[in-house]
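Much of what follows relies on a compact textual record of a protein's fold. With that in mind, consider the following protein and its fold in token form.
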Amino acid sequence: QVQLVESGGGLVQPGGSLRLSCATSGFTLDYDAIGWFRQAPGKEREGISCIKIREGITFYVDSVKGRFIISRDVAKNTVYLQMNSLKPEDTAVYYCATDCSYDASYWGQGTQVTVSS
């Protein structure tokens, strides 16, 4: 059974950092890519970053480029999202999924990130 479990969310002040983890089980990261998405209250879910597992090629949406870093540890079947210089507009539920696109087959349950003073 394929499972993705996000962790690492929480409350952080503006300018702070968090590292999200996406732990996968039921497969050994042999999907082509893992993507990170987020959904803020009242807004549609948006893709923010993605990593091609084998090549390590990364993609970022402009709003997080230069602040967020996606990485993977194949041995641990885990993908990370290091989030720096956080802003209030980064507040959202963050999800990982087994693709860069919205039609990914599997999704995690999400982890809440709140950026507030």
Summary: The mean pLDDT is 94. DSSP finds no helices and ten strands in the chain.
